[in-house]
């Protein structure tokens, strides 16, 4: 088990982050379901391209500064002021550059509306940049409860306004309200709690204190961008905006479990585990417990999503999104690997080895790019792109954890994979049962089929865990009932 102080911090942080994320997943699904019925797949495709592009420009305003602030234990108030001022200047510069590039981007994708979308979203880059220091300080001080409630409130308010705007005929512009409102609102709330001073002349010594960590973090973010977003860029350019809309909707739905399971844990892991940067054996030991726990959720969940793809797409988004079903089914096979893999960055950060994170990310990017190029050139279909991602993510899973355990922790690779054996066994059992059940529920109502498969998923997983004594679920339930 985790040591009590660490366990308390981790559970506390995860609890409040979970409140935000799991309430957020309900809000997100409801809002997405409504907007999917009011806005066309092509409009979703255009916004998907704009979002990918703005993410690229945001990398140059972020520069890995946030995690570096969390990791460094020696920064003073004067250092924070210098770093904050740097983010203001760099954020203003990058946002203006993105605004000016909007005409080139619109011409490249042959979509005039993309020009105006990019110009409006340039606001996001500026506010995301100047929010880096206040937000990092909240994470460093482990203010997880505040961060959770703050995020949920803006997600809810922004979503409701977006839906209202869509009903009033705002069309594609309704999709921009939530991200813009959220970025502006979160900055002002964070700045109120963690005010910073703006200085005209920056003392570069403050930047040097975090440069070693932040440079490799930035390089990782840069190459990870291409690893994560090249699929949307090439689909939009070579296959079309409408197929991109179907693909992006499938990808976003696939990402919901990823974002709302690991993204509950990963924001907490780095601040909590940063104290183990000089004790890598303890860090490895604590992390393996998290990996094992996540494996029992992620691998079986991947199979459930595969066998409920039709029900989920049609129930959540409606019949006009039927073209997303094959893509979602393929992408769901990568969910288990992605959930575990997405926690690795926090461990590289906590181990103070962002250089290893960069090297691992570089290999991942090369593999992903090659896979996507082959899929586009040879097949030119969104299904082929989805299969390319599943294959490359699987390869990168192995190379990432080889890097972590053999190069960083100096331990045997087999130690990591021993913790995955039992979760993989229950996943195979789940796949066999749901394959049989899928044939029997083919003609049932979608909602009834989804309920049956979900109940079977819970029963098999809970029974296996309890009978194998992996975790004492009955004991946990009894304790909760006594309380």
Describe the structure.
With 483 residues, this protein is mainly α. It contains 21 helices and no strands. It has helices spanning 4-38, 41-62, 65-71, 77-109, 112-130, 132-140, 144-167, 174-193, 204-238, 241-273, 280-307, 309-317, 325-332, 335-341, 344-350, 354-378, 382-408, 413-418, 421-440, 446-467, 473-482. It is globular and about 70 Å long. It starts with a helix and ends with a helix. The model has no long low-confidence stretch (mean pLDDT 83).
Q: List unreliable stretches of 5+ residues.
A: none
Strand content: under 5%
Largest sheet: none
Task: Provide the structure class.
Answer: mainly alpha
Estimate the global geometry from the Cα principal axes: globular
Number of strands: 0
User: What string, H for helix and E for strand, traces the elements in order?
Assistant: HHHHHHHHHHHHHHHHHHHHH
Rg, alpha carbons: 22 Å
Q: Provide the helix percentage.
A: over 70%
Distance N terminus to C terminus? Answer: 22 Å
What is the number of helical segments per DSSP (H or I, 4+ residues)?
21
Q: What's the rounded overall pLDDT mean?
A: 83
């Amino acid at each position: 088990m985790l040591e009590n102080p660490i366990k308390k911090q981790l559970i506390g942080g995860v609890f409040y982050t979970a409140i935000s994320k799991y309430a957020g997943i309900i809000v997100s699904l409801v809002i997405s379901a409504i907007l999917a019925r009011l806005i066309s797949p092509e409009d979703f495709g255009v916004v998907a391209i704009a979002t990918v592009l703005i993410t690229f420009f945001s990398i140059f305003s972020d520069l890995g500064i946030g995690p570096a602030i969390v990791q460094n234990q020696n920064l003073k108030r004067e250092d924070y002021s210098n770093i904050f001022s740097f983010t203001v200047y760099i954020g203003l510069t990058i946002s203006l550059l993105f605004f000016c590039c909007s005409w080139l981007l619109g011409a490249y994708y042959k979509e005039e509306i993309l020009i105006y979308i990019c110009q409006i979203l340039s606001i996001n880059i500026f506010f995301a940049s100047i929010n880096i220091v206040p937000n990092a300080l909240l994470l460093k001080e482990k203010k997880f409860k505040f961060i959770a409630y703050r995020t949920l409130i803006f997600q809810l308010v922004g979503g409701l306004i977006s839906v209202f705007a869509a009903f009033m005929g705002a069309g594609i512009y309704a999709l921009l309200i939530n991200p813009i409102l959220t970025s502006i609102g979160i900055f002002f709330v964070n700045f109120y709690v963690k005010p910073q001073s703006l200085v005209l002349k920056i003392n570069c010594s403050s930047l040097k204190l975090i440069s070693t960590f932040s440079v490799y973090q930035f390089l990782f973010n840069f190459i990870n961008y291409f690893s994560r977003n090249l699929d949307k860029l090439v689909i939009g350019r070579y296959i079309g905006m409408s197929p991109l809309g179907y693909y992006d909707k499938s990808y976003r739905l696939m990402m919901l479990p990823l974002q709302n399971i690991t993204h509950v844990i990963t924001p907490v892991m780095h601040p909590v585990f940063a104290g183990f940067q000089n004790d890598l054996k303890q860090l490895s030991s604590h992390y393996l417990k998290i990996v094992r726990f996540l494996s029992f959720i992620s691998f079986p969940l991947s199979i459930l999503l595969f066998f409920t793809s039709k029900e989920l797409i049609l129930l959540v988004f409606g019949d006009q999104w039927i073209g997303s079903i094959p893509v979602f089914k393929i992408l769901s096979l990568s969910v288990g690997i992605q959930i575990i893999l997405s926690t690795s960055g926090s461990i590289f950060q906590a181990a103070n080895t962002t250089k290893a994170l960069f090297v691992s990310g570089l290999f991942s990017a090369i593999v992903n790019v090659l896979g996507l190029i082959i899929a586009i050139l040879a097949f030119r279909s969104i299904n082929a792109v989805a299969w390319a991602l599943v294959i490359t993510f699987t390869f990168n899973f192995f190379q990432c954890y080889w890097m972590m355990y053999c190069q960083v922790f100096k331990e045997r690779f087999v130690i990591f994979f021993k913790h995955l054996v039992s979760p993989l066994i229950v996943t195979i059992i789940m796949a066999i049962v749901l394959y049989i059940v899928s044939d029997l529920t083919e003609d049932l109502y979608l909602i009834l089929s989804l309920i049956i498969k979900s109940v079977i998923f819970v029963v098999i997983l809970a029974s296996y865990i309890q009978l194998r004594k992996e975790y004492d679920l009955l004991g946990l339930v009894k304790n909760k009932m006594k309380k």
